[in-house]
Amino acid sequence: MPRFMVTIFFSMSGSEFVEMFVGMGASKVRDLFKQAKEKAPCIVFIDEIDAIGKKRDGQMGGNDEREQTLNQLLTEMDGFEGNTGVIILAATNRPESLDPALTRPGRFDRRVPVELPDLKGREAILQVHARKIKVAEDVDFEKVARMASGASGAELANIVNEAALRAVRDGRKFATQADLEESIEVVIAGYQKKNAILTDKEKWTVAYHEIGHALVAAKQTNSAPVQKITIIPRTSGALGYTMQVEEGNHYLMTKEEIENKIATLTGGRAAEEVRFGVISTGASNDIEQATKLARAMITRYGMSGDFDMVALETVTNQYLGGDASLACSAETQTQIDRRVVELVKTAHQKAIQILMENREKLDELSQTKNHQGVIALVSAHDYVEVEDILAAARAKGEDPFIILLDGITDPHNLGAILRTAECAGAHGVIIPKRRSVGLNATVGKTSAGAIEYMPVAKVTNLVKTMEQLKKEGLWFACADMGENDHFDTNLKGPIGLVIGSEGEGVSRLVKENCDFTASIPMYGKISSLNASVVAALLMYEVVRQRNYS
């Protein structure tokens, strides 16, 4: 008979130990640990332990209830042996406030920081909460996760709940992609205030303000692509906002990226100045964020030549928003203030210059008619249908030459592949709707203009698309490790080259539907190449076999 071990879980909040009468908290601690030893094996979890575990003031002879409770907790933890079968866990948002005696080896000697989730973490959390509701089959959680950059687990749960409520209000049985994307906006900026009445002048001001943000972002390098621009007022007080979405995880920011971000933040005010010659109160939040970034560059990130790598600021309560305070002389503070003003002013002038150079586009986008609150959904280029790619090949009297990308998520790789495909004479590129980067500003810049000439089709199911293309006479070569060297592989005739993702390669189902593999010989110690390099080598092998053999 199999044996199962049942572990008992004791859960209490730190505030439950705090009593009015002296000694009652310590008594509760003794009772808790007595039960734990009797019920072993078990887990004891104390939430918000900072309620009883704060640093002691060092005064002798005190009779404070909190200190007595803490002393009893320390005593009980010292009484455990390695084989008692009791595990003690605790949680706090203020680890810096805990008494050193509590966190020394032998007590709470292991710290597990729970940071904000990354892209994969956000996607997984969304999928977990989505199991509790009905969602459409075509929901792209990876895209939603990218749009929800910086969101905590609780905020992600709220996003899913908001999506479900929106679906119910609209009388639908399933939450859709649009529901999830709208719920992100609700969490970020609040609910729509559709009853808010703006004058025509205010509407134009807000429109130019938001387009100013978008244009400045689009005309700079190392800037996240613009996803959406809206002028629908929100309950947070915002009369509109511009949403930028990173293509993946972004942990580090260079000095140039921060300066570009500050310029983007000043773009709204700059647009008002360029168009109307006046300024409004609509830039208040932009001013606050730009100032914070500029100050952090100097005091925290060491990005100023005046102070080099000197820490001028201390951060406390990092898990509660991060309160910062300057740790320098009054004279240095004056210099910091002067430098912050210079940084923001320079970024502001840069934004004005960009908008002056693109004044025609600023007016064109801002004066869009019948926008229903959404000015623009920005895309680097339009997609085509697969049939359009085949038609292009027929029009040239050539065998179809198509590149299929399975899970390419790096926009720089996609841009490089488009550039090579155009130069090699390919007729088109096919990408899946899910788990793939789309045509954005970064892709457009990396392609060096090829995005304007190379047709790109986005399909729901890559395998079914391959099955349809096989009926058109295409053969598919999979870029993968194998015995078939690409020099010895017949790549003539109607051909589709399948390139896999940067880390995982070609997925199993797609690989199984390929007719053969084409491998790149490796002679060094590194056993893999960048996806765009692999694509380039195979594409020009097709060119060689078609034209020179």
Q: What would you note in describing this structure?
A:
The structure is a single chain. This protein has 18 helices and 14 strands. It folds into 4 domains: 8-103, Rossmann fold (3-Layer(aba) Sandwich), CATH 3.40.50; 119-189, Helicase, Ruva Protein, domain 3 (Orthogonal Bundle); 200-376, Up-down Bundle (Methane Monooxygenase Hydroxylase, Chain G, domain 1), CATH 1.20.58.760; 386-547, SPOUT methyltransferase, trefoil knot domain (Alpha/beta knot), CATH 3.40.1280. The mean pLDDT is 82. The chain has 549 residues and is an alpha/beta fold. Helix 4 (119-130) crosses helix 6 (153-169) and helix 8 packs antiparallel against helix 9 (255-276). The protein is globular, with a radius of gyration of 30 Å. Strand 10 (428-432), helix 15 (441-446) and strand 11 (456-459) form a beta-alpha-beta unit.
